[in-house]
Amino acid sequence: MTSPDIEAAEQFLAANARVLERRRFERLFRGGDAGPVRDAVAAYRNRDGGFGHALEPDGRCPGSQPLAIDFALRVLLEAGAWDTALADGACGWLAAHAPAGGGAVFVDPSIEGWPHAPWLVAMKGEGEAGEGPASPICTGLLAGTLHAAAAQAGGPAHPWLSQATELLWSRIDALSDVGPYDMRALFWFLDNVPDRDRARAAMEKIGPMIFDGGMVALDPETPGEVHYPLDFAPLPGSLARSLFDQRVIDAGLDHLATAQLPDGGWTFNWMAWSPAAEREWRGCRTVEALHILRANGRC
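The structure corresponding to this sequence follows.
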């Protein structure tokens, strides 16, 4: 069984990562308080309740973005730093910017004119407001995170979440022409939506699509921008674990542990389009790798 070098990772983060990732590491691995994580997330908040300012490193605009909102909420959830006021403000932004039928677009037009990854392009719609269609990626990620938070912290679901959940169920019932990022987001939603029987049935239906569509690389040594079993089923309780043999998961965990670079950090396998984004993603990936490894008993 291979384990990571946590001390080397801490040194890498100290030398290279944002305050946010350093506070996340401190909270998760050094017994730190939740408050500094909450405060670090709140620094990226806008007056409109959303989050921007390159919190999600590929979208480097000040304006609020759905992916940045999910990043913020996921970090708060991960660190046990959930803040109802921040979450309510974020849901208010999502509701105010939802396309017809609910959910969230992939990219808000506020990104235009600011540095961003080439794949973060706002889609134009045909409605009166000109908004793009609901994105299964952003809608699935956000709904999954908010359902997970509701289960952890309790309280009623925001109206945006209720509408987004119905939208996702309808998309899953008629699912076709999807890519690996869509499936990863939908799996996260299924991992956390309250209707567990329906979630398990949906996973049985759509789970095999990642194999039929060649979306998953079972060999952890496969190079390039590919998606591995741990991308779809990172945690022992992930519904998608049923899709993979345990030996495949163990091999992926071994590879993840040994993927720690000599500088102590981890890297990523998609295009590094900006030095700043590359550095920030490496900090994110380092904390995420350690989190996954610990959740699976590897550190």
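The chain has a mean pLDDT of 95.
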